[in-house]
């Protein structure tokens, strides 16, 4: 019996020990799995840390590079800020405007930007792009109001016109039998067209003079402009002699030119002119030949201008513009030049004309030197003329020398709107004859509604002619004129 109890106790001890051993081993196995998992996580963290260190090194390199770029940009900004600011002059603005217009006129650009005016079917020869034209209304253009242009830019037609209506009262000298007169007249009426054909460098211009019942062509010529330094003009046009005569009557400081300019100017003629503006417009030259007849009285009889003495007139002209391009095609500074502009010029004409009439058997040499200045609404011009008339035959009489000059100035009291002006001019028709000098004193005021396209001018002038030992002959002129371009 004791043996049975002992066996039972022994079995119970064995079972208890087995349970204790199993329970003890289970936590050890769990701890081992957790340890392996922790080791794996540690390894991943070490790898991630290594990658982050590499990224930090790369970011450090990038940061250093960006610092260098920032330093370089700062230095460039400082260098640019130290440079003087260039003021855009009217000439630069005009050039930029011209370049922008040329750029926008190309088919490729117009297609990209989706701009342009509708096609004009009546102006198309076919539906090819080279033939498609645009029409523009340009009321603010200096000369033209209507412009028709091909997309290629090789063809264009510009149309314009202008009208000058004038009231004039002449207070004549009663001591010489003069009678006062007054008149309302169309001083000038012009219709003109210009443009280019076949190429942007081949240009044309013609104008119709309609200020009388005898309508006739005023100008008609072609000019080729391949380079700034070398150009050519052929046809009937103004002789490039004196500046005031070359200035259009639309852009004169006064309603008419000075008496000296009328006496010695060479007006229009048939001819060929080779000219250019090298050195960025600082120099301008003209070498021209003309028929020499001009608009002479023979035209009314024969229907054409005839070269009565069968001799050609030649003209040489040289001009220096110290401050760059000078707009001497305008007698005012309506553009309000921001910087000083000046010009010095000299011209000589061989076998020239006197008062637009060429004399038979007489060699005429006429020269002119001139000066012009423009600055912030101030326009100052002066010209001095010299002429020598030499008879070709021995029995033609003695040589005759004459001279004259004018100086005039204008100032915009209100920029681009209200201008005051004054002029003095003198002509000595014969240096060997005393007391025959002619003088002009003129003062005026101009108001511009839309530049030279719409303006009103008023002036008063006293014109004196010496009469030898007798009292001088005087005439006063009161003029009021309105001009409109369309």
From TrEMBL:
- The region annotated as signal peptide is 1-30
InterPro entries, per database record: Porin_dom_sf, Porin_O/P
Highest taxon above the source species: Bacteria
Q: What UniProt keywords are attached to this protein's entry?
A: Coiled coil, Signal
Instruction: Look up the coiled coil feature and give its residue ranges.
Output: 28-83
Can you say what this protein is called?
Phosphate-selective porin O and P
Q: Which organism is it from?
A: Kuenenia stuttgartiensis
